[in-house]
Every structure is written in structure tokens, then in C-alpha cells.
Design a protein that fits this description.
Blueprint (H helix, E strand, L loop, with lengths): L26 E4 L4 E4 L5 E2 L13 E2 H6 L10 E6 L5 E5 L15 E4 L10 E2 L6 H14 L7 H7 L3 E35 L5 E30 L6 H7 L8 E2 L9 E4 L4 H23 L4 E30 L2 E8 L5 E3 L5 H22 L1
Parallel strand pairs: 8-13, 9-12
Antiparallel strand pairs: 1-2, 2-3, 4-13, 5-6, 5-7, 6-12, 8-11, 9-10, 9-13, 13-14, 14-15
Helix pairs in contact: 2-3
């Protein structure tokens, strides 16, 4: 692990690095074999840089916000930006994008290379291949209840797209101090007057709960390791969080060979924006942890102060299979974690099935009350 902020080593010009040594055909990274594979003669070639295992770097956050890194993905690419969702995706230089991989919009425009994003320094290569991702998509649709019946047809016609999605990973220690009022319940017996079934006044007793408030304070120390913040604008936070966790212990140093034959999205959320989002998440988590530390039965006026130290980050690419399918002209997104196979997505509801369910529930309620008479 590096303690100083420094750019990754130069990567060689990829113009001839990914041609098959046997037949000269173009090779692509194969998720099943974890190497470069020639589609013409099935020859293989190792992916990644020799001797680079374990050289995944982390950088000091303050230095990262002030200094520059190496930029671009390394290989020659063409970048396209979606006018509808804002995603920016890089393809091989011979590829032309006609639709956005994230929202299905045809409003994609080729961009110049002047932006040159910070180059990722580590990557988790795809472990799940296209056939397995497609099978998971079909199984997911088949498991959904109260969805339109023709979704199964979409499962057979929808194309899965493998995408390396940009992420930021943060490490930090958090010292939290809190103050609150801790409430302790106690009960007092009270006497009251009520009417019985014959309309007579009767005296009865009941236990009434009260709260005794006491000042309380405390502190705690917590550590966050590889807290992920997605740098994509094309994917919703709701869905990407459901895909977690990724096993970041399996990160390898970035090498352009892992991207050969695949698409890669450029980050839309830069380092400063990603840290702000991650810090907000951690502050919410620290508030919940401090709340659990407050003694008593209830609490009020909780105030938490956090101090973040040893802040470090990594810029990385994580593998995600995605599919955008349309139902009645509305796009829906399905995702597969390209490392673990975890699935999540959105699907339309069937109004007819929900209506039938409501009618059935209402009928059961009516029948239940009828039996009580």
C-alpha cells in the first residue's frame, strides 16, 4: 500500500497488444477463462501486467483533491454521452454507439477526448459471463409476482451488456462524540371513574407510563474500509447499493487488457463530489450507531459531532451486467453483479393482477366478518 499520492505507471500503447499471436485476430477479455481469448481460433493470452499482483494503491484524500493523476483508459477509445440520463461511456475505437446502455435512449452524441478522466488504478475483472448473466435475468423475471405476463417474452429478446462502472472507494477513521437526553420509563397507578355495562359509575385503576429524562453523553471510534461510492450518473444509487457487496480484496492493478472487448463508463461524479456523498452516508451511519449507544428506553435531542482522520481513496472499475428493456414505452433497468452474480432491477406492476389480489383480499375480509356474526 502506498502512503504517497503518485500516478500509476505508464501503460504501453495498446495498438498491437491485443491481437491474437496465432492468427492475428482481435482478442477480448473472457470472463469465464479470466484471460484474453481469440474469437477466431480460441487462442488465449494472459490479461493484466506480469508481477503486478497485490500492487493496488490507495491515496491520501487531501493530496488526491489537490494533485492530478494519469488520465484516460489507456487504449484508444471513442466516448459517447447520453443526452437523457447523462451517462458517458467509452467503447473500442471501432465501435459506434446507437443507444444508451443505461436508459435505452437513442440520444447519444460522440464526445471529444479533451475531458480525459482520471485513470482508474484498480479493477475487479468480470467473473460472470454473458450466458450466466442472461440466465439470471430470465430467472429473476420468472420469480416476480404481480408483474405483466408478457415480461417472459422480453427476457428472451433483451440483450445483456457488460459494463465496467466507475467507483470510488474510501477508507477513514471516524471519532464521534454525542450528547442526548436519555429517557427511562416508569409507571404510576392512577384511579379513574368509568361506566360499567349497566351504566353505573365504577372506580377503576390503570398503569400510566411516564418518562424520566436524564442527560447523557459518550463517544465511539469507528473505521470504514473500502466504502464504495458509485461514480456513474447512468445508474441509480438505489440499484447499485443493492448489488453490493463487491469483494474488494480481489482487486487487481488496472491494466487496459481487462477492458478489451468490453465497455467502460467514465465517472460523472468526481472525487470531491464522491467524498461528499460518502461522508454524508457515514455521518448518517454514525448517528444511528450513537443513537444505539444512548442508554435508557427512549431518547431525544441527540447531537453528534464527527471527526474524520486517515482519509484515503481508490479509483476503481467494477463489473456490472445491465439490461434496459421497455414495457409500454417506459424503460426498466436490470443489473447483475459481474463478480458475485447478485441481481436487482425494476419491473412494471400488473394492474390486473393487483386488482384481482385486492378483490380476493376484500372477499376474504367480508367472509371473515360474516362468520363472526
Amino acid at each position: 500500500m502506498s502512503n504517497d499520492f503518485s500516478p500509476p505507471p505508464d501503460t504501453p500503447d495498446p495498438s498491437g497488444d491485443y491481437l491474437c499471436p496465432t492468427c492475428g485476430g482481435r482478442m477480448a477479455f473472457d470472463a469465464a477463462r479470466q484471460c484474453l481469448l481469440c474469437a477466431f481460433c480460441s487462442a488465449t493470452k494472459a490479461a493484466g501486467s506480469a508481477g503486478a499482483a497485490g500492487a493496488v494503491l490507495e491515496h491520501d484524500l487531501e493530496a488526491g483533491l489537490l494533485q492530478s493523476q494519469q488520465r484516460g483508459f489507456g487504449p484508444a477509445v471513442r466516448s459517447f454521452s447520453c443526452e437523457q440520463c447523462g451517462a458517458r461511456v467509452s467503447y473500442g475505437e471501432a465501435t459506434t454507439a446507437t443507444r444508451c446502455d443505461f436508459c435505452g435512449s437513442a440520444r447519444v452524441l460522440e464526445q471529444s477526448d479533451r475531458r480525459q478522466p482520471l485513470r482508474p488504478e484498480s479493477v475487479i475483472p468480470f467473473q460472470i459471463d454473458k450466458a450466466s448473466a442472461t440466465a439470471r435475468f430470465r430467472a429473476w423475471l420468472g420469480s416476480l409476482w404481480f408483474r405483466p405476463s408478457d415480461l417472459q417474452k422480453l427476457a428472451r429478446s433483451t440483450e445483456m451488456s457488460g459494463m465496467y462502472v466507475p467507483y470510488w472507494a474510501f477508507d477513514t477513521r471516524v471519532a464521534s462524540s454525542w450528547r442526548a437526553e436519555a429517557g427511562y420509563y416508569y409507571y404510576v397507578t392512577e384511579t379513574y371513574t368509568a361506566r360499567d355495562s349497566q351504566g353505573r359509575n365504577v372506580t377503576r385503576q390503570r398503569q400510566v407510563r411516564h418518562t424520566r429524562w436524564e442527560r447523557a453523553q459518550g463517544s465511539r471510534q469507528d473505521h470504514y474500509d473500502d466504502l464504495l461510492e458509485c461514480g456513474s450518473k447512468g445508474l441509480s444509487r438505489e440499484l447499485t447499493r443493492k448489488l453490493e457487496p463487491f469483494d474488494t480484496s480481489r482487486l487487481v492493478p488496472y491494466d487496459p487488457s481487462y477492458l478489451v472487448g468490453w465497455k467502460a463508463e467514465e465517472y460523472s461524479l468526481d472525487l470531491g463530489q464522491a467524498w461528499a456523498a460518502a461522508q454524508q452516508r457515514m455521518e448518517q451511519e454514525q448517528r444511528q450507531r450513537c443513537s444505539r449507544d444512548v442508554p435508557g428506553d427512549t431518547q431525544r435531542n441527540l447531537r453528534v459531532e464527527n471527526r474524520f482522520t486517515e482519509r484515503r481513496f481508490k479509483h476503481l472499475l467494477l463489473p456490472i451486467w445491465l439490461s434496459v428493456y421497455r414495457y409500454r414505452e417506459r424503460p426498466y433497468v436490470f443489473l447483475v453483479n459481474g463478480q458475485t452474480g447478485e441481481v436487482t432491477g425494476h419491473a412494471p406492476w400488473s394492474v390486473l393482477k393487483l386488482t384481482l389480489l385486492g378483490v380476493l383480499v376484500l372477499a376474504l375480509v367480508i367472509a371473515f366478518y360474516a362468520l363472526q356474526r
